[in-house]
Amino acid sequence: MRRIVKGGRVVDPSQELDAEVDVLIEDGQVVRLDENIEATAEDQVTDATGLVVTPGLIDIHVHLREPGFEYKETVRSGLMSAAAGGFTAVACMANTSPINDHRSITELILGQAKRHPYARVYPLGAISKGMAGEELAAVGEMVEAGIVAISDDGLPVMNAALMRRALQYAQHYDLPVVQHAEDLNLTGDGVMHEGEWSTRLGLPGIPSLAEDVMVARDLLLSADTGGRYHVAHLSTGRSLEMVKEARRRGVRATCEVSPHHLLLSDQLVAESGFDTASKMKPPLRPQSDIDILRQGIVDGSIDAIASDHAPHHQDEKDVQFSMAPFGIVGLETTVSLCLDRLVGGGMIPLSRLIELLSTGPARVFNLPGGSLRPGRVADITLLDLDRQVTVQPDRFKSLANNTPFAGWQLRGAAVGTLLAGEPVALPEDE
Ligand SMILES: [Zn+2]
After folding, report:
1. Which among 59, 87, 409, 415 is least buried, having the fewest CB atoms inside 10 angstroms?
2. Half-sphere exposure (CA, 13 Å, Cβ side) for 255?
3. CATH classification at residue 29
4. CB 326 within 8 A of CB 291
5. Model confidence over 106-117: pLDDT tens digits?
6. Is residue 429 pLDDT above 80, yes or no?
């Protein structure tokens, strides 16, 4: 079985390629990139004229909610959402019910993913049993079942001794330890960033320190153990500076940021009239943090952009600001937001964005993909840089619609994905 993706502009940062070439795929793998590859009568052809062809985009921070919270999202709806948003793979967090802290849950998630193959799923296992923060989970057997990293995301690992053990133990499997960096004592009952706006609005604040002290502690633990440490949804300028400084000393630390932390400030809580779609963890930060994060997008110190797709049911979010759960969806907005605001705005070239959304995430979690070099799996995303879209949450494939970006008009969108060389087709009208 051969397929040729013809006529597109291939942007692949893994081989510093940005050129109009065709992609020849055989048996699910990239075989050759070349100008004008002739199609024979038996070849399938994907016409990519006018489109950008990139290695499949990978979102390494997604909550699929299954098992246990199927009213928020399922593996099926989450993967449809991923494909609609241009992603060929997602890594899903362990805070399901039951928690993914042993192999049977990992297998259940991967079984569901197999039944609904709209995108690949790479589960994370929990760091601690029951995410209780006390004992290490059964990491070895979850690795056998297919996890790619460990995290108690949703919650931080508050116990430094446990974090140290996790960073030591995970090295047996070369797994990154992913931290939701937050000191819960500093967070207290905070519901938004602690600063000028929380004071004006009279809402309890979450200080930047809640993130910074955790990142500082973990970088020390990572340095001492030699373990691989990854900061999930990094949101403060100071945390990024610490990660950069630690890396200069050889600490194996990586980090991701979410689009909302690059594009929205804590002022939105006031501007939106306490819209619960402006409530997430970490909270939206002031402009001074946004400026430093954007610098990290430009200078290469941020490894990945990840959505932290956190679906909640509308009934859960339609409550008073202080009562609402934290989190927003992101799978179907991330690519257009980044194309419009980061690339269209002139902040970074397209190749850097593809690095942040594909090559970088693949490297951070040791995933296949992230490259269209010959021999690699033919997971591909097709982008239309000129497509005008309006964010319409009621059209999302996700079961949830909690987004602060409703109504945003954006230029640029993902228009299709291929998995192992096969175009992904989504069911209509769902
Ligand atoms: Zn988190």
Report:
1. 409
2. 30
3. 2.30.40.10
4. no
5. 999 999 999 999
6. no
Amino acid identity at 420:
A
Dihedral sign for Cα 341, 55, 146, 398, please. Answer: positive
pLDDT one-digit tens code per residue, 325-354: 999 999 999 999 999 999 999 999 999 999
Task: Give residues with Cβ within 8 angstroms of 381, minimum separation 6.
Answer: 53, 54, 55, 56, 57, 86, 87, 88, 358, 414, 416, 417
| Catalytic annotation, residues | 308
What are the phi and psi torsion angles at 20 (to 5°)?
A: -85, 100
Statement: residue 430 has pLDDT above 80: no
The Cβ-side half-sphere exposure at 150, using a 13 Å CA radius, reads: 36
C-alpha 368 – ligand 1 centre gap (Å): 24
- Cβ atoms of residues 293 and 261 within 8 Å: yes
- Is the same domain home to 218 and 358? yes
Arithmetic mean of pLDDT, 249-264: 98
Tokens of 26: 């055989």
Q: Which domain holds residue 18?
A: 2-52+378-423
In a domain, residue 429? The reply is no
Identify the pLDDT of residue 428.
79
In the prediction, which pLDDT does 316 show?
Answer: 93
CA of 232 to the centre of ligand 1 (A): 6
281 CA to centre of ligand 1 in angstroms: 6
Which positions ≥6 away from 379 have C-beta within 8 Å?
Answer: 55, 56, 88, 89, 120, 368, 369, 417, 418, 419, 420
The alpha carbon of 153 and the centre of ligand 1 are apart by a number of angstroms equal to 5
pLDDT tens profile 27-43? 999 999 999 999 999 99
Paired tokens of 383: 């982008």
